[in-house]
Amino acid sequence: MRNKQKSRIRRFTLTQRMFHLILMLSFLIQSATGLSRMYMGTSWGNFLARLFGGREQTLDIHIATGAVMIFGFSVHIIYLIFTFRWRDFPKSLFASDSLIPRPKDVKDFFGHIGWFFGLKKMPDFDRWGYWEKFDYWAVFWGMVIIGGTGLLLAFPLFFTQFVPGWSLNVAFWVHRIEAALAMVHVFVIHFFIAHLRRRHFPMDLSMFEGSVDIDAAGHEKRVWIQGLRQSGLYGNALVPEATPVKRLVYRVFGYGALAIGTVLLIGSLAHINGLGW
Amino acid sequence: MRKIFIFPPGFVFSGMIVCAALMFLPGDSFSREEVASSMRRHKSQEMSTGYYEGYEVLPRRLRPVANISGVVQRTIFPQHSSSTSHGTRSRLSDSHQGVRFYKNRKCQDCHVDEARGSHTVRAGISCRQCHGHDPIASINHYYSPMNPIRRHAYVCAKCHPGANASFAAYVSHPPRPGTETAKREFPALFYAFWIMMGIAVSTLLIFLPHTVLWGIRELFVRKEKDK
User: Fold this and answer.
1) What is the ipTM of this complex?
2) Of A38, A230, B69, B73, which has the highest C-beta tally within 10 A?
């Protein structure tokens, strides 16, 4: 039976979840099409290219999806400008729910590592743990680097008016290495944290559902929950669990993405000897 | 009344602003010269007829995916061929002058790395589509179409209409980016490569063990009782 009690705390707004959804879909398409180009000439690259109808189409899809990503990124920047609490400007940068790194994150990082070895108590995290902030800024920085070099490579005739042609050689390698890093990070580290950690096994639905379990949050994100209680916002943040149908959709969708990412990772690692330089 | 799913207003509003901004971007014709036809443009100056024999292009059935037969990678980091005899042969009217058994060899027998370059593997074009027929003039021979003073118009623009000299500064056969050869011939590529590799490797060196240790540590946490 559905739990009608308000047993969960709201963590992501609908807009934020949609950003994640769009990013996730476009990232998977970019990974598959990009890997098919990266592994071009190998059986793995050929297999991926055939899924999209050949290597020419793969590149077209890659560029079109890249345009969608850059569009989404611009929308995200505008969204940040409009939703930022400008009223208490310098303070809101370092507020409890801000994604800007602060000294506590460095302390938490080392405290957490101490906890891995049983040397320290587990740190009490605020709304965003240091690994979550890193994930956010990694995407941000990846968007700028991969998106920028991608634009250069997609419109060489236009951009070589301003930069010499050999910078396309450089852009190609920067694009490639940064993309490889992004894929390993998402398909190994991000997937591990969201799926394989015992606390979240087999899947953490919070990014799809938008809310987290009170008990789970109370244990890991203690500072956040305490802050909510003290500021009196705790009651407003409580939401009921999503309907079973919705949760099923989230699960099917999440497992689909997980499967695609894992296949891409394993296929690429298995064929790494055929990787062209 | 049942609430129908709608996009949140902040999302729509931000999207509209970006769409409006996009309208002020110049069209893609901004970067191109006006030409009647990309095919006809340099016809009068071309050495090639534009028609290629079967041995000059990849077989049609291989078109959807790239596959270069007969090219083997000899070692992990083979030396780039341009570093060995670059100086002596770069100004001849026939760059293969005096090469033994030239008639019986294929380009990729000697130019191993070049045959694996992006234009060959990715665009699927053959050596002769750019370098032309025998005798193939050296890159820097004064009348060579490959000479940097006219390369953009005679070679690049065949497929990239509107290519300018800056565009033609693209290195079609770059050295392998991590090698000493690259450091000597193309330092920007060498340093960009190693800086990016440094960022990637150090990120993974920190976060891979971190994540594994975290996963192991959580196995030893006593699960909290509900409430």
Assistant:
1) 0.90
2) A38
Total residue length of chain B: 227
Asked if the structure places residue B138 within a domain, the reply is yes
Quote the tokens at residue A4.
């009608």
Q: How far apart are CA A117 and CA A45, in angstroms?
A: 41
Q: Domain tally for chain B?
A: 2
Please indicate, yes or no, whether residues B157 and B201 belong to a single structural domain of this protein. no
**Nearest-CA distance B98 → chain A (Å):** 31
Q: Are residues B48 and B124 in the same domain?
A: yes
Encoded tokens for A227: 């802050």
B6 touches chain A (CB under 8 A): no
For residue A205, give the H/E element and its range: none
Question: Of the given ranges (A95-109, B46-60, B61-75), which has the lowest mean pLDDT?
Answer: B61-75
Q: Is residue B125 part of a domain?
A: yes
pLDDT computed for residue B79 by the predictor: 37
A173 and B177 in contact by Cβ < 8 A? yes
Q: In what order do the strands lie in the sheet with A238-239?
A: A211-213, A8-10, A238-239
Domains present along chain A, CATH in parentheses: 29-83+257-277 (no CATH), 90-241 (1.20.950.20)
Residue B168 is given by DSSP the state G
| Residues B104, B146 within the same domain | yes
Task: Say how many C-beta atoms besides its own lie within 10 A of residue B65's C-beta.
Answer: 20
| One-letter amino acid for residue A239 of the chain | V
Do B201 and B136 have their domain in common?
no
Threshold 0.90, pTM exceeds? no
Of the candidates B5, B204, B214, the residue with the CA atom closest to the CA atom of residue A21? B5
Q: Please tell me whether the peptide bond between A240 and the residue prior to it is cis, using omega within 30 degrees of 0.
A: no
Q: pLDDT tens for residues A125-167? A: 988 999 999 999 999 999 999 999 999 999 999 998 888 888 9
CB-CB under 8 Å, B15 with A75: yes
Cis omega before residue A202 (within 30°)? yes
How many Å lie between the alpha carbon of B134 and the closest alpha carbon of chain A? 28
B70, B215, B13, B128: which is closest to A188 by C-alpha? B215
For residues B131 and B197, state if they share a domain: no
Which residue range is the domain that position B112 belongs to?
35-74+88-173
